Amino acid sequence: MSVIDIHNHFIPHSWPDLAEKFGGDWPWMKHQDADKAMLMFGNKEFRPVTSAVWSAEQRLADMDRDGIDIQVISATPVLFAYGRNAKEAAECARLFNDAARELCAINPDRLMSLAQVPLQDVDLACTEISRIMREGHLGVQIGNHVGDRDLDDEGIMTVLQHCAAEGAAVLAHPWDMNKTVRNSRYMLQWLVEMPAETELSILSLILSGAIERLPKDLRLCFAHGGGSFPYLLGRIDNAWRHRDIVRQDCPELPSSYVNRFYVDTAVYNDGALKLLLDVMGEDRVLFGTDYPFPLGEQVMGELVRTSAHLTEHQQRKLLGLNAKRWLGID
């Protein structure tokens, strides 16, 4: 049984000083010792991290511990640089994409990668997609929005269409959540806003009718089990049936589009996983851990392997077979 984790993150050990080169606030690593560091954004602390984010050796040891055959790594979203000048973001993307390939080169049979692109600029994003596919990446990780532009934005739609043309898998990851006084405590941005962001992204494609214009061979996956979308789909369908302002641009029942995208298994609860399969179908769910962060699955694969609701064949699909199809690999 192949076990392929399609949702996990890396951060390089270090990189050139982007603030010195471009000015303004950029992410950088403040190392505390050989195993611990603080990911900084400008002069603000963003997230404590361990060597698992930059060390291929530690990553492979953790994969061996938990029986993971392959990880498809992607950068942590704070590195996206969507708020910067597009040319600066393109240079940033090349920097981290090349760093990802260097990390994977330690063991290319077990470490593979998704790239990032300057999503705020269509031409630069498409150019980088073509380059990274030649360089050995399997696809791209994108943020679920660029400022006020959702995934149904015409420019972002063009990028998604180019991904389909290049055979690039796409992982849509929530990021840049709205911070308020009410959600500033207890990681509520991550616990409440992040799942809502993912649902907002999925609905921006469905209710706008944009998903009808995307190529059917686009391999698009939403992280964290699709956020709150699968669990509120009944409410969404009900709204579509009874409110014309909901269905004005959406020709079909929203639930009819679940066969157009994938979600991952990062839901941490067997009942939630059962509902996810009931909504999405067993062919549309991919194994993802969100390793190596505290909100990730701490024993990677435990949820799928110990589920009381999955057959052995369904476990095989979720742990690896579906990922091979999504990634376009044998």
Task: Describe this protein's structure.
The protein is α/β, with parallel strands linked by helices and 330 residues long. The chain has one domain (4-10, 67-327): Metal-dependent hydrolases (TIM Barrel, Alpha-Beta Barrel), CATH 3.20.20.140. The protein has eleven helices and eleven strands. The protein has helices spanning 18-22, 56-66, 86-104, 122-135, 154-166, 188-207, 233-242, 244-247, 270-280, 302-306, 312-327; strands spanning 4-10, 27-31, 36-41, 44-50, 70-75, 111-115, 139-143, 169-173, 220-222, 262-264, 285-286. The strands form two sheets. The protein has an eight-stranded parallel beta sheet. The protein has a three-stranded antiparallel beta sheet with strand order 2-3-4, with no helix packed on it. Strand 3 and strand 4 form a beta hairpin. Helix 3 (86-104) packs parallel to helix 4 (122-135) and helix 4 (122-135) runs parallel beside helix 5 (154-166). The longest helix has 20 residues, at 188-207. It is globular, with a radius of gyration of 19 Å. The two termini are 13 Å apart. Its EC number is 4.1.1.45. Belongs to the metallo-dependent hydrolases superfamily. ACMSD family. Pathway: Secondary metabolite metabolism; quinolate metabolism.
The percent of residues in helical segments reads 25-40%
Derived structural class: alpha/beta
What is the succession of H and E elements?
A: EHEEEHEHEHEHEHEHHEHEHH
What do we call the CATH homologous superfamily? Metal-dependent hydrolases
Give the number of DSSP strands. Answer: 11
- CATH architecture label name: Alpha-Beta Barrel
Strand content: 15-25%
Low-pLDDT residue intervals, each spanning 5 or more residues: none
CATH class: Alpha Beta
Look up the CATH topology: TIM Barrel
Q: What's the number of domains? A: 1
- Largest sheet composition: 8 strands, parallel
- Identify the overall geometry: globular
**How many whole angstroms does the radius of gyration measure?**
19 Å
Rounded to the nearest angstrom, the distance between the terminal CA atoms is 13 Å
Name the strands of the widest sheet in spatial order.
Answer: 1-5-6-7-8-9-10-11
Mean pLDDT: 96
